[in-house]
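Students often ask what a holo structure prediction actually looks like on paper. The answer is less mysterious than it sounds. You provide the chain, you provide the ligand, and the output is a string of discrete structure tokens encoding the 3D arrangement of the protein together with adenosine-5'-triphosphate.
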Amino acid sequence: MAEIKLSGVSKRWGNFVGVDKFDLTIEDREFLVLLGPSGCGKTTTMRMIAGLEDPTDGQILIDGKVVNDLEPKDRDVAMVFQSYALYPNMNVYENIRFPLRVRGIDPSTHKDKVMRASAMVELDDFLHRKPAELSGGQRQRVALARAIVREPNVFLMDEPLSNLDAKLRVSTRAEIKNLSHELSVTTIYVTHDQIEAMTLADRVVVMEKGIVQQVGSPTEIYDRPANTFVASFIGSPAMNLMQGVIEGGTFKADRVSIPGFSASDGPVTLGFRAEDATVGGAGAEISAPIYTLELLGDATMVSVRIGGALISAKADKTFRAEIGDAVSIGVPASICHLFDATTGARIDG
Ligand code: ATP
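The corresponding structure tokens follow.
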């Protein structure tokens, strides 16, 4: 059982702000993902929760108790890092058992605990091997088992999949999801990979430059991005964004005219997702020559250039045309998002 509360937590080094007034309650058993580009403050936030970094301001509470002054070892959190940090001279069994030894847990229970943890990550057949005799994915699973064996109240995972190749990432990601479901432990997971965030999280915190941009379920963040930063960070491809003006309820830009908005007149940024648009239909809102075509297998991505920006729309996988051919793209107001042209904040209408 562990609820974690961050109240006005900031970290500064001199004038540089690494994390700015982070406020959030992470519920017991929640899987929370901190997502953002390199340097946005994800790791610093997690290190403060772990006790490896002191906040400059604010309080961190675990189950209602302020832990700012508690040593990492007294916070009952287990960390899994991007580098596995396994002991090269110990075999898998001893590596997994290590936290039990240093914590003085009754030795008669060690074997059961190690076997249970290793079975969860399917390492039972590798217990006698040294880390050098394992693949990257197996080493990462040893690191996971070593965190699991402690039966902590909180898991903190910092980019645990980033050293794995693409295929292993997908299978280990599925394993982590399944484990977190089985163990029901509050988990905070740091990544810059939006697909990892979307697939693993109960809630995602999107950060940029030390500031929380949006907190929400993967669906909320995908369907209702709070600003243009979140819109352009989430989704593959990212949301199409273009500058234009609203005039009498119609969004206008070069080669674009989309009626049906209730926002007031003036400049705005309009966004829509490639998969929400239709390609080649009648009465389209965008008409432009095709800039490029990409065959994705399950679909064909059609891109046009509007005012310097590349705008993509997903067509059926059978769609065929040539670069330079005129294409019409259906973008009704109902699939569009509007953002303030200056601040980037979402506006309704
Ligand atoms: P990455 O994905 O690259 O690990 P991150 O989002 O985890 O990035 P942090 O490691 O939290 O980013 O760093 C946030 C910012 O704080 C960065 O700009 C970093 O350079 C800065 N920073 C981190 N540690 C220190 C330090 N000890 N002294 C000064 N600045 C620091």
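The chain has a mean pLDDT of 92.
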